[in-house]
Amino acid sequence: MCEKIQETASWLRERMTTSPKTAIVLGTGLGQLASEITDTYEFPYQEIPNFPVSTVEGHAGKLIFGRLGGKDIMAMEGRFHFYEGYSMKEVTFPIRVMHELGIETLFVSNASGGMNPDFSIGDLMVITDHINFFPEHPLNGPNFPAGPRFPDMHEAYNSALISLADDIAAEKNIRLQHGVYVGVQGPTFETPAEYRMYRLMGGDAVGMSTVPEVIVACHCGIKVFGISIITDLGGFDVPAEVSHEDVQRAANAAQPKMTEIMREMIRRA
């Protein structure tokens, strides 16, 4: 795997005309931020050596380089999921490549189901911590030289970046929630009982991504900021049906607020 990571990083480095220190992972229905990136050049995943290919509707499947908030950045428009049949090493492969390319800060976004009764559909939730319910751990196996065998996770989501997001949201009068993200395998949406269980365990929102990428980023020493768009609600008295299309529509509606915050964070960070 180390050889593949270096091969992919070398292939990209030979073609890169910028030097980004910041990367963004855009989840389901969150591709609008990509349109804000200027001076772009991009690579479809299928053209990049050793890269998996995104199979989920709403994930464009390309690596974008350019400028956002006055900074060089790289962005994944579409991620990879464990439920697609990829191993955790494949799901987190792009994060390893980012580290090889010199990325120091990672912004991750996702669409998630809310079970906090104070949440509403369309809310933005800054991730303050997570609970890992994936059946496979991304650091299983031989330790990568990028980090320690037993990485510390007491501050997986960088507190200074969270404070910066809060300041920007206050300035722009954007409502931000804070909460714990529960990462699960999927691909089924949660049952009402599962929503209630995750809530009792301390979760505020649940989704099928993000946690593996954040773990590997922390292992590599990359600072992380995470944000969820609450696209559906569950675990309350009246069960609500949800579809992938519903999730995409809710994510699309909330994108402008998320884009404004992340653009300004990158500018100031």
TrEMBL record:
Nucleoside phosphorylase domain location: 22-267
Pathway(s): Purine metabolism; purine nucleoside salvage
UniProt entry tagged with the keyword Transmembrane: no
Membrane-traversing stretches: none
EC number: 2.4.2.1
PANTHER family, A to Z: METHYLTHIOADENOSINE/PURINE NUCLEOSIDE PHOSPHORYLASE, PURINE NUCLEOSIDE PHOSPHORYLASE-RELATED
Function: The purine nucleoside phosphorylases catalyze the phosphorolytic breakdown of the N-glycosidic bond in the beta-(deoxy)ribonucleoside molecules, with the formation of the corresponding free purine bases and pentose-1-phosphate.
Name of the protein this chain belongs to: Purine nucleoside phosphorylase
Organism: Prevotella dentalis (strain ATCC 49559 / DSM 3688 / JCM 13448 / NCTC 12043 / ES 2772)
